[in-house]
C-alpha cells in the first residue's frame, strides 16, 4: 500500500510528543512493507542535512513546503478563517502555495491513503481530489485542548467567556473536518467517547501511544534525583513544570533536604529559566535523546494537570525500570494499575506524599520499576501499540474487518464509532 503522511511537525529527532508518534507510525508501516512518503508543511527554516538524510532513509520520499507564518497571520483570509474557528495551527494548510503543491503531489502519485497528523493538517483534505482513503490522527480533541489551554494560562472572567465562545467555533471546525474523514485515529477510549458525542458515521480506531525498547546500560540511579521531562513549547506542560517546581518540590525537599530535581526539555522559556533560581532545581536545555537523564533518575515525575495527558513521558520512565509518580490526568488513556505500575496523584499534597513514599522506600520503588517495565514490554512497545494499523490498512484497501468481542475488550483494539442515538 502507498501512503502520504501530512504533518507540520518535524519527526526527527523523535525525542517527545508528536514527533515520536509520527516517527514510530511511519517506521512501523514501512516495516510491514508499505510505501510511505512524508509531506512537511513548515515555516521557512533550513532542516539540517543529517536530518533530511535520516528522514529520506526512513520515509523514502520527503516533500517540504515552506510557508511564512507571519504573512499568513496578517492576511485578510487568515482573519476570516480564525473568525470561523479555524485554529492558528491550521492556517498554513489553507495557504494557496500549500494547496497547489499538495494537489501536485497527490496528482502525480496514486496513494491508497493520506494520513493527516492532527485536525490542523486535515484542513487540507477539502482542497484535495477524492480517490484515496483519508485518515486523521488526533492527539487530543479540540474540547480537551481548548479547555486545557485556558486553565493553564489562568484567564480572567471576561477573557474566559471569549475563549469559551471561540472554543465552540473551534469544536465545530473539528467536527466538520473529522466528519469528512474515512477513518479517525484516536489515542484513548476517552477521546473516542468525546468524538462519538459529536460525529456521526465516522470510523474510529484506537492507536495508543507506545515506546521503543531501550538498550539498558545498567546505569545506577543518582540518589535523590527526580527527573521531570516536558515539552517546553506547550503551555499545558509549562504549567505542570512550574507547578511541580514551585508548589510540590519545596515540600519534598523539606522531608529530603538532599533531593534534586532535573527538568529536561528543549528551548525553555523565561518562566522555566526562572526556576533555576530555586534551591535544588536544574533546568536542562537539550535536543539529545533523554535516555541518560531518565536512567539516572531515582524517580520520574509527570505533573501534567490539564489536557489529554502525557502517556509518552510515563512510558519512557516505566520502560527504563524507573518508578513514576504522575497526576491522574497525565496517565489518561493508559490502563495502568495505580500502586503497582506507578503512583497516581490527585492533588498537590498527594503528589508530594507519593514522591516521599518512593524516596523513603527504595525496595518499593525498585519493585514498581520492574512491574512497570514488564507492563510496557507486554502492552506498550510500538509494534504492539500499533497493531490496530491493520484496520487502517484494511480500510484503505477496501477490505472490511469483522471485530470479535475479544477485540473490543483489548485496550488497544480497533473499534468503529457507533452512530449516537438521536
What does the model show?
- This protein has helices at 17-31, 49-59, 69-74, 76-83, 96-108, 119-122, 142-153, 157-179, 189-196, 235-255, 270-273, 291-295, 311-318, 348-360, 362-379, 382-385, 389-396, 405-409; strands at 2-7, 35-42, 61-66, 113-117, 133-137, 183-186, 203-206, 225-229, 260-265, 281-285, 299-302, 324-327, 343-345.
- With 422 residues, it is α/β, with parallel strands linked by helices.
- It folds into two domains: 2-210 and 385-409, 3-Layer(aba) Sandwich (Rossmann fold), CATH 3.40.50; 225-379, Glycogen Phosphorylase B (Rossmann fold, 3-Layer(aba) Sandwich), CATH 3.40.50.
- A seven-stranded parallel β-sheet has the order 3-2-1-4-5-6-7, sandwiched between helices.
- Helix 7 runs antiparallel to helix 8 (157-179) and helix 10 (235-255) crosses helix 14.
- Residues 400-422 have low confidence and may be disordered.
Low-pLDDT runs? 400-422
For the largest beta sheet, what order do the strands appear in spatially?
3-2-1-4-5-6-7
| Structure annotation, total helices | 18
Q: Structural class per helix/strand content? A: alpha/beta
Q: What percentage of residues falls in helices of 4 or more residues?
A: 40-55%
Q: Indicate the radius of gyration in whole angstroms.
A: 22 Å
Report the sheet with the most strands, covering strand number, pairing sense and barrel closure: 7 strands, parallel
Amino acid at each position: 500500500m502507498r501512503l502520504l503522511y501530512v504533518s507540520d511537525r518535524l519527526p526527527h529527532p523523535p525525542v517527545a510528543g508528536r514527533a515520536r508518534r509520527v516517527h514510530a507510525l511511519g517506521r512501523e508501516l514501512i516495516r510491514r512493507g508499505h510505501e510511505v512518503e512524508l509531506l512537511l508543511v513548515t515555516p521557512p527554516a533550513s532542516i539540517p542535512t543529517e536530518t533530511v538524510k535520516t528522514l529520506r532513509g526512513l520515509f523514502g520520499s520527503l516533500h517540504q513546503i515552506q510557508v511564512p507564518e507571519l504573512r499568513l497571520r496578517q492576511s485578510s483570509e487568515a482573519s476570516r478563517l480564525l473568525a470561523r474557528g479555524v485554529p492558528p495551527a491550521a492556517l498554513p494548510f489553507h495557504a494557496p502555495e500549500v494547496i497547489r503543491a499538495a494537489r501536485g503531489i497527490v496528482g502525480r502519485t496514486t496513494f491508497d491513503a493520506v494520513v493527516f497528523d492532527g485536525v490542523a493538517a486535515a484542513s487540507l483534505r477539502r482542497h484535495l481530489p477524492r480517490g484515496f482513503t483519508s485518515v486523521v490522527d488526533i492527539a487530543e480533541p479540540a474540547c480537551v485542548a481548548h479547555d486545557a489551554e485556558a486553565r493553564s494560562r489562568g484567564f480572567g472572567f471576561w477573557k474566559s467567556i471569549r475563549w469559551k465562545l471561540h472554543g465552540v467555533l473551534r469544536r465545530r471546525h473539528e467536527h466538520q473536518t473529522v466528519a469528512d474523514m474515512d477513518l479517525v485515529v484516536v489515542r484513548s477510549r476517552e477521546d473516542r467517547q468525546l468524538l462519538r458525542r459529536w460525529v456521526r458515521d465516522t470510523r474510529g480506531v484506537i492507536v495508543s501511544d507506545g515506546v521503543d525498547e531501550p538498550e539498558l546500560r545498567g546505569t545506577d540511579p543518582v540518589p535523590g534525583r527526580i527527573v521531570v521531562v516536558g515539552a517546553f513549547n506547550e503551555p499545558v506542560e509549562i504549567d505542570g513544570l512550574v507547578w511541580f517546581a514551585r508548589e510540590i518540590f519545596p515540600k519534598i525537599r523539606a522531608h529530603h533536604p538532599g533531593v534534586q530535581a532535573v527538568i529536561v526539555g528543549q528551548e525553555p522559556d523565561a518562566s522555566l529559566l526562572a526556576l533555576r533560581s530555586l534551591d535544588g532545581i536544574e533546568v536542562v536545555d537539550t535536543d539529545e535523546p533523554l535516555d541518560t537523564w531518565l536512567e539516572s533518575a531515582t524517580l520520574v515525575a509527570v505533573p501534567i494537570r490539564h489536557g489529554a495527558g502525557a502517556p509518552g513521558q510515563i512510558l519512557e520512565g516505566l520502560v527504563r525500570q524507573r518508578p513514576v509518580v504522575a497526576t491522574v490526568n497525565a496517565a489518561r488513556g493508559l490502563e495502568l494499575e495505580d500502586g503497582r505500575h506507578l503512583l497516581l496523584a490527585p492533588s498537590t499534597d498527594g503528589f508530594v506524599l507519593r514522591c516521599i513514599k518512593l524516596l523513603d522506600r527504595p525496595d518499593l520503588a525498585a519493585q514498581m520499576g520492574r512491574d512497570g517495565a514488564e507492563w510496557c514490554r507486554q502492552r506498550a512497545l510500538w509494534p504492539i501499540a500499533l497493531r490496530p494499523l491493520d484496520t487502517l490498512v484494511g480500510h484503505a484497501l477496501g477490505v472490511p474487518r469483522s471485530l470479535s468481542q475479544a477485540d473490543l475488550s483489548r485496550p488497544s483494539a480497533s473499534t468503529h464509532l457507533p452512530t449516537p442515538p438521536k
